[in-house]
Amino acid sequence: MQLSTIASPAQTPTPWPAEGGSTGGVRLLAPYDALFREGDETTAFYEVLSGAVRAYKIFPDGRRQIVAFAFPGDIVGFCQGDTYRFDCDALTTTRVRVIHKQSLLRAMRERPELAEKLLEVARGEVETLQDLSLLLCRKTAIERIASFLLTMARKAPDPVAQRLALPMCRADIADYLGLTIETVSRNMTRLRTLRIIDLPDRGSFQVRSLERLRQLAECDGTDH
Amino acid sequence: MQLSTIASPAQTPTPWPAEGGSTGGVRLLAPYDALFREGDETTAFYEVLSGAVRAYKIFPDGRRQIVAFAFPGDIVGFCQGDTYRFDCDALTTTRVRVIHKQSLLRAMRERPELAEKLLEVARGEVETLQDLSLLLCRKTAIERIASFLLTMARKAPDPVAQRLALPMCRADIADYLGLTIETVSRNMTRLRTLRIIDLPDRGSFQVRSLERLRQLAECDGTDH
DNA sequence: CGGATTATTGACAGCTCTCAACCCCTGTGG
DNA sequence: CCACAGGGGTTGAGAGCTGTCAATAATCCG
C-alpha cells in the first residue's frame, strides 16, 4: 500500500525535464513551513527531493484528516483543480522541486507521450487512495498501524533488521489512520509486546517479523 | 461529495466520440451481471448510460469494501493498470458504453487536448476518493449516512420534496460506508425519527430538511 | 399463500474514544 | 550541575458507539 496524493518513485521515472529550467526551481522548507494552503491557486505541483511533507484537511468542527505523507520521489499537489483542496507543510527540513503547471501543459501539447505518463501518475494516486479507503473502511486499529508501518518499511531497501525513520509525530499518524493518539500508542506497544516490531526511540522503529506484520496488515485472517 | 472511481457527469462532458464506432458499443447488463472482475485485463472502461453499478474489493478474510457506485454519466474502470483492481457488477438493469483503451490512446496521440480532458477525469476520481477517505476517517455512523444520502440527493435536479431512488441494498451501503447493516439501519431510522428524512419504502428516501442533513454531513458541529 | 430474502429492532460485548495521570526527554535558567 | 517547566508519548479507568448475535417484521416472488 502506498500513501496518497502521491506516485511512488519506482514505477514512474520523473517524466518532466530534470534540469531546473523553465519547469521551475527548488524550494527549501524548514519543519512545519507551509508548501501551500487550502484555497491557494494551483500554479504548480511539487516533487519531494529530500525530507517529508504532510497533506491534510481541517474540518469545520476542528477534526483533522491527513490525506497523505510524501517522501523523496513522491509528488504532491498533482490532480488538483484550480485551487488546492488541502493544506500541505513540511515534517522536517525538506527540499522540493517546483513543477509549474503552465509549462507542463505546454510540454504536454508538444509531446503527447508525456500525457500518458501523467495519466500513469494519476493512476498511482488513485490506487493509493483506494488502498487508503480500504484501510480506513475495513481495518481495526492494529491492522491500520501494521499497514502503515509496512508501507514505511517498504520504502527502505532492506526493510528488516534496520532502524527506520518515523519523521511524523503520533498525532500525525493518528490523524492519518483515523485513530486517536492514545490508540496509536497503545497498539504500537502491543506490536512491540508481540515482538513484531521494536521501538528504539520516538522517531524510529524496526521490523522484527515482517511476515506477521504483513499478515496483520493484509487481513488474511491467519494470525488472529 | 462524489462516489469514487468516477467522474461526475456535469463537470466533464464526455470527451470521446459519442457514436458507437471504433470507440466501442453498448453493453446491456441484468441485475448483478458482472461488468468485469478483479484481475481481468483492462481492455476498456465504461460510461454508465442508465442504471447503476457497484465496484468492490473482497479481502482474503472475506470482508468486502465497495469502492464506488456509478450512475448515468459516471465512468468506471478508468485509472486502472493492466488489470482491474476490483470487481464491478450491475445493481439494476444497466446500459454502459464501452470505451476501448487502445482506440482512446490512438485518439489521444492525434488530439493532445483530449489528454487534458482525461486528466480532468482522473482529477475528479482523485477528489472523489479523497472525500471518501475523509468520510471514512473522521465521521461517525450517522454523519457517514448523512453524507451518503446527501450525495445521492445531489444527483437529482430538485433534491427536496421528491422521492429519490436507493438502488442498492443496505449491505451495499454498509460495505461502502465501512459500517454494518444493523448500524446503517439504526441510523437511517434515527434520521427519520429526527425528521431529517423519510423512508417511504426500501428502495427510496426523501429529504425533509436538506439543511440539517448538510450540517450532519459536513461536520460543522452546529447540530450536535 | 408460503417460503425466502431483506430490513428492523433488541441485548450485550468489545473496541476505541475521552479524560486524566504519569513518564521521558529536552531545553532553560539559576 | 541541578531544578524546573514544557512538550510529546505512554498508560489507566470509564463511557459511548459500533459490532455481533439473535429474534422479529416487512417485502418480494413464485
Automatic annotation (TrEMBL), chains A, B:
Stretches assigned to coiled coil: none
Residue intervals of the Cyclic nucleotide-binding domain: 33-77
Protein name (database record): Helix-turn-helix domain-containing protein
Gene Ontology cellular component list: cytosol
Pfam families in alphabetical order: cNMP_binding, HTH_Crp_2
InterPro entries assigned to the protein according to its UniProt record, in alphabetical order: cNMP-bd_dom, cNMP-bd_dom_sf, Env_Response_Regulators, HTH_CRP, RmlC-like_jellyroll, WH-like_DNA-bd_sf, WH_DNA-bd_sf
Alphabetic keyword roster: DNA-binding, Transcription, Transcription regulation
Compositional bias of kind Polar residues: 1-13
Single GO MF descriptor: DNA binding
Region listing for Disordered, in residue ranges: 1-22
Superkingdom of the source species: Bacteria
UniProt xrefs under SUPFAM superfamilies: cAMP-binding domain-like (SSF51206), Winged helix' DNA-binding domain (SSF46785)
Domain (HTH crp-type): residue spans on this chain: 139-211
